[in-house]
Amino acid sequence: MKSPIQIERAAILKRYKPIDAQTHKGIQGHALLIGGSYGKLGAMTLSSKACLKTGCGLVTVFIPRCGYEILQTANPEVMVLTDDQEKNISKIDFDFIPQAIGIGPGMGQELETQNALHEFLINDKTPLVIDADALNILAENPEWVFLLPAKTILTPHPKELERLIGKWKSDSEKMEKTIAFSKKDHLIIVMKGAPTFIIDGETVYENMTGNPALATAGTGDVLTGMITSLLAQSYEPIDAAILGVYLHGLTADIALPETGFQAFIASDVIANIGKAYLSLEE
Fold first, then answer.
1. Contact indicator for 100, 127 with CB cutoff of 8 Å
2. Is the dihedral angle over the CA atoms 90, 91, 92, 95 positive or is it negative?
């Protein structure tokens, strides 16, 4: 295996597209985020706010009915569609064409939610980010992986990755198995960890930002929103994954002098996305 390509500021600047002075919300992309279940609406609140903060022009969420007031109150800039079911997703239905879709945060694994995901994957042609419970449902139904569009981005943490590819005995075996999984199904794998690796077939990128402050609930949901946002803004999938992971880590590096490790929470990632972008403009 070749050594990973290190993702540092110089490499990011080659991929980063500054905002056009003539832009408007209609051409900054419309992202759809699908997820949430009773007691886990925070994941969608964080994910959708991060999606907006990363520059997407329009963000719509599709959630169970119980989350309607929560999302409308927490994120007034986000549009909300709801399932017929009160507590979980049972049928994914929307009437517009998003530029990118992120699915999984807080979604749960109810049987009807699994069926809804299957129906969605059969019909989906939109660039896709898959996270959290959507990954766990895929691990339970491995034959569904064939339904994913080429260059779909998967963002597993170590336990989710293990469910997808099986156990490993060493870091090198983990990498080999992830590369094989990526190649077989033409997927981009964001292997979350310290450091985070982005795997696109034989090509492996190592992110150089971030610190242990990110080891806290909800930061993965935020990352899903950030990558989906970049995908909706017409970044190529590999560039959306690399730039999203880099900015996500950079927020923790920027915030650390003020928060320390212990007090940093997922909302601090969102609060520092603007500063992370500004550091690219300097």
1. yes
2. negative
Distance CA 60, CA 44 (A): 11
Side chain identity, residue 240: A
Helical (H) or strand (E) element with 6: strand 5-7
Residue pLDDT, tens place only, 217-255: 999 999 999 999 999 999 999 999 999 999 999 999 999
Going along 16-156, which residue ranges are E strands?
30-34, 58-63, 79-82, 100-103, 128-130, 153-154
Do β-strands 128-130 and 153-154 pair in parallel, antiparallel, or remain unpaired? parallel
Q: Give the whole-angstrom CA distance, residue 19 versus residue 226.
A: 16
Give the three-class secondary structure for 65: helix
As a whole number of Å, the CA-based R_g of the chain is: 18
User: pTM for this one?
Assistant: 0.98
Cα–Cα distance, 187 to 139 (Å, whole number): 15
Contact 32, 94 (CB under 8 A): yes
Task: Evaluate whether 162 touches 211 at the Cβ level (below 8 Å).
Answer: no
Sign of CA dihedral 61, 119, 160, 248: negative
Q: Where are the beta strands (DSSP E) in 131-249?
A: 153-154, 188-191, 197-200, 203-207
Yes or no: say if 87 and 61 are a contact pair by the CB < 8 Å rule. Answer: no
In this prediction, residue 39 carries a pLDDT of 98
Cis peptide before 195 (omega within 30 of 0): yes
Distance from the Cα of residue 114 to its chain's centroid: 19
In the block, which residue shows the tokens 């992202």?
31
Q: Give the whole-angstrom CA distance, residue 133 versus residue 147.
A: 17
